[in-house]
């Protein structure tokens, strides 16, 4: 993992983020989207998260974006305000190089600094073993799976649910 740096994403990163996400949508089951959104939509999504105060990160290798991660609201109702859902996408040429772990570790730290108390991972497809293992090693526990909730690539897909306490978790009131 030489020359990897993690930093806050900017609007200038959107073309790279869009490319990475488009590959995930077209070729993988991490996202249940069927058509990749364009740069304008990805800009809108990034802006909404940043304006909401959520962390949005990119990993660079030798100056090129190799992956990105962000946290966003788990649900919109007010009682969920201390819970975030994470998303991590890595460029295909950068898989299996520790970038996902570096992004997740930094994302957890950023969320703890913002006083969030729980992080949820909604992992598309129970066959996403690398993502499940990444989250397990980072302290997430399996809390269940929604079976056959998505249909993509001519097959039914599960959603795996994992969670990890942040900071003091639920041991104290916010």
Tell me about this structure.
With 174 residues, the chain is of the alpha+beta class. Helix content is 29%, strand content 34%. The chain is built from four helices and seven strands. The protein has a seven-stranded mixed β-sheet with strand order 1-2-3-4-5-7-6. Strand 2 and strand 3 form a beta hairpin. Helix 1 packs across helix 2. The longest helix is centred in the middle third of the chain and has 15 residues. The model has no long low-confidence stretch (mean pLDDT 96).
Provide a concise account of the structure shown:
The chain is of the alpha+beta class and 174 residues long. 29% of the residues lie in helices and 34% in strands.
């Amino acid at each position: 993992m030489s020359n990897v740096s993690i930093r806050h994403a900017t609007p200038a990163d959107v073309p790279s983020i869009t490319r990475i996400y488009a590959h995930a949508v077209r070729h993988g089951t991490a996202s249940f989207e069927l058509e990749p959104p364009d740069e304008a939509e990805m800009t809108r999504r990034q802006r909404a998260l940043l304006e909401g105060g959520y962390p949005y990160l990119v990993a660079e290798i030798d100056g090129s974006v190799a992956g990105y991660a962000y946290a966003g609201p788990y649900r919109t109702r007010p009682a969920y305000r201390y819970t975030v859902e994470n998303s991590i996408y890595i460029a295909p040429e950068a898989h299996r190089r520790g970038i996902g772990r570096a992004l997740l570790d930094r994302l957890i730290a950023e969320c703890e600094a913002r006083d969030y108390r729980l992080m949820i991972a909604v992992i598309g497809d129970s066959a996403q073993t690398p993502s499940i293992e990444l989250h397990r090693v980072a302290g997430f526990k399996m809390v269940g799976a929604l079976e056959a909730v998505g249909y993509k690539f001519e097959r039914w897909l599960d959603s795996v649910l994992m969670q990890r306490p942040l900071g003091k978790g639920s041991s104290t009131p916010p």
